[in-house]
UniProtKB/TrEMBL annotation:
Signal peptide: none annotated. This is Rootletin-like coiled-coil domain-containing protein. Keywords: Coiled coil. Residues 157-333 form the Rootletin-like coiled-coil domain. The keyword Coiled coil applies. Residues 49-70 are annotated as: Disordered. The keyword Coiled coil applies. InterPro entries: Rootletin-like_CC. Residues 92-201, 251-292 form a coiled coil.
Length: 333
């Protein structure tokens, strides 16, 4: 019975070790993809960083319309934000896939461990009741390993859930910022068209001012109106530039938060790798102790068999001597 339990324990440990190697080999590509995404993250182009519409608008609200960022610069900035958002979504999907794979691996290990404990429950209970401390220690270590694995899995799920929520919020903020940038671009285009139209009107009025006095008076009136409208447009443009500066500051803050999230994810990956190594060490210690206990039991059985054979030979000599003594006594009488 004890040999059967030992054989089952050794077989279970070998099976778990084989599954761990297989799962590590399968999860290596996913971890490699995540590291590639972090290491190969796209950098902002030089012209985008140096000629960003946010940088231009933040240099001062006193500049004229010629300092308004071009549509090409806005398109480049928008394209960079889209690439950053896609990269974050890719990392999130890869992390979710790794989490699902770890969950499947954990459930499989838990089921096999429960089946092994359920199959060995009666024998282990009877062995523990006999008062053998080594077997009791083996069972306690098995239970402790299972509890530690459960705690590590729960901690990883909680950290991963918090990370996913933060990534989702950041993606939503980046999307809102892109919408604001698009609105700002459309508004600037409208203002440019309006000012261009005003310039054309002023040129046309200036050319027709030499015809008649009435037309001159009308021209003065329309010029005054255009000046007022241009002043209002200039004020609106300054306000839009201020909003653009605020958006640039918000974008910088979001990028800092995104970098912090990347660092947090890297730390979680390191913690998972360290916990896996510790679990492997505990499994090796458990295997070594099982082998030592099996070796001691085999030595004890050999000693017991040897002593039993000696006692049997001694008893056989006593019986033979007694028989000879009885025969000698009968002969003497």
């Amino acid at each position: 019975m004890v040999d059967d339990i030992l054989e089952r324990s050794i077989h279970l440990d070998e099976t778990l070790a084989h599954d761990d190697d297989y799962d590590d080999n399968r999860s290596t590509p996913i971890r490699g993809q995540i590291q590639d995404v972090f290491l190969n993250r796209p950098l902002t182009p030089a012209f985008t960083r140096s000629r960003s519409p946010f940088t231009v608008s933040s240099q001062g609200s006193s500049r004229n319309l010629m300092t308004t960022p071009t549509s090409g610069q806005l398109i480049d900035e928008n394209r960079y934000l889209n690439d950053e958002l896609n990269r974050v979504e890719t990392v999130l999907n890869l992390t979710r896939a790794e989490k699902d794979e770890l969950s499947i691996r954990y459930n499989a290990l838990s089921d096999r461990l429960e089946q092994s404990l359920r199959a060995q429950g009666v024998d282990l209970s009877s062995d523990m009741s006999t008062g053998e401390p080594e077997r009791r220690i083996l069972v306690q270590q098995n239970i402790e390993l299972r509890r530690k694995l459960e705690e590590e899995h729960q901690n990883y799920k909680r950290k991963l859930s918090n990370y996913q929520e933060g990534q989702l919020k950041q993606a939503q903020l980046v999307q809102k910022l892109q919408q604001k940038v698009l609105q700002y671009k459309n508004r600037c285009t409208e203002l440019e068209l309006l000012i261009e139209q005003h310039k054309k009107d002023m040129d046309r009025i200036r050319l027709s001012a030499t015809n008649t006095t009435a037309l001159s008076f009308l021209t003065d009136t329309r010029t005054t109106q255009n000046i007022d409208e241009q002043s209002a447009v200039s004020v609106s443009l300054d306000e839009e530039k201020q909003k653009s500066a605020n958006f640039a500051q918000l974008n910088k803050m979001l990028r800092d938060q995104l970098d912090q999230a990347h660092l947090t994810n890297q730390q979680l990956t390191d913690d998972l790798r360290r916990n896996t190594n510790e679990l492997q060490k505990l499994r090796e210690e458990f295997t070594q102790k099982t082998r030592d206990w099996q070796q001691e039991e085999r030595i004890l059985n050999q000693f017991y068999n040897k002593e039993h054979n000696l006692m049997y030979e001694l008893w056989r000599d006593v019986v033979s001597f007694r028989k000879e003594f009885t025969e000698l006594k009968g002969t003497t009488e």
